[in-house]
């Protein structure tokens, strides 16, 4: 399982570097998902199955979906046809595809491997993790969640555009009807 540990660690490092250096937020989120899945692979190779499952469910699942929704709400990218065609070129998707394929090979190797042992270490149960988090650190966990929520609200308000006349309807015909009704 040390092979899986090192390969997953390398994938996590490479994907995280692409998250930092990528200028398009949607592509950076794609690399971040790959990085989080690779970190889950590191947890699995260490024998921390609960932490790996939480990494996949909470971070790679729920929080990343939330980030994608925030990016979509902010509408940071243009919707021009040329830009969308550019995203389909292999230069854009080949990096995440290669990292995902290597991660898939490592997962298949780990599942089909003869040795079912993780790297030496002590197993920690879910109950112990819950007691450790919500015992002495309950205030810190709650403050971190409130800070994340506040950051999302601030990002939404900073990134939105003021669009006059689009509150009630985005269609041109409806705004023309309102103008004629107001003058009548």
TrEMBL record:
Similarity field: Belongs to the complex I subunit 6 family.
Classification lineage: Bacteria, Pseudomonadati, Pseudomonadota, Gammaproteobacteria, Enterobacterales
Protein name stated in the entry: NADH-quinone oxidoreductase subunit J
Subunit field text: Composed of 13 different subunits. Subunits NuoA, H, J, K, L, M, N constitute the membrane sector of the complex.
Keyword set, alphabetical order: Cell membrane, Membrane, NAD, Oxidoreductase, Quinone, Transmembrane, Transmembrane helix
InterPro entries in alphabetical order: NADH_UbQ/plastoQ_OxRdtase_su6, Nuo/plastoQ_OxRdtase_6_NuoJ
GO molecular function terms attached to this record: NADH dehydrogenase (quinone) (non-electrogenic) activity
Native source organism of the sequence: Raoultella scottii
Record carries keyword Repeat: no
Subcellular localization: Cell membrane
EC number per UniProt: 7.1.1.-
């Amino acid at each position: 399982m040390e092979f899986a540990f090192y390969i997953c660690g390398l994938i996590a490092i490479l994907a995280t570097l692409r998250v930092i250096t990528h200028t398009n937020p949607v592509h950076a989120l794609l690399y971040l998902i790959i990085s989080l899945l690779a970190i889950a692979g590191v947890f699995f190779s260490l024998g921390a199955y609960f932490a790996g499952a939480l990494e996949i469910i909470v971070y790679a699942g729920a929080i990343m979906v939330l980030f994608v929704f925030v990016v979509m709400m902010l509408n940071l990218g243009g919707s021009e046809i040329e830009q969308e065609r550019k995203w389909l070129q292999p230069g854009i998707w080949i990096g995440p595809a290669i990292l995902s394929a290597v991660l898939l090979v490592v997962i298949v190797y780990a599942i089909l491997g003869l040795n079912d042992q993780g790297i030496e270490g002590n197993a920690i149960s879910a109950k112990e993790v819950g007691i450790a988090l919500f015992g002495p650190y309950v205030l810190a966990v709650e403050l971190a969640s409130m800070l994340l929520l506040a950051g999302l609200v601030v990002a939404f308000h900073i990134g939105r555009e003021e669009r006059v006349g689009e509150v009630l309807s985005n269609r041109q015909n409806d705004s023309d009807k309102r103008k004629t009704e107001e003058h009548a």
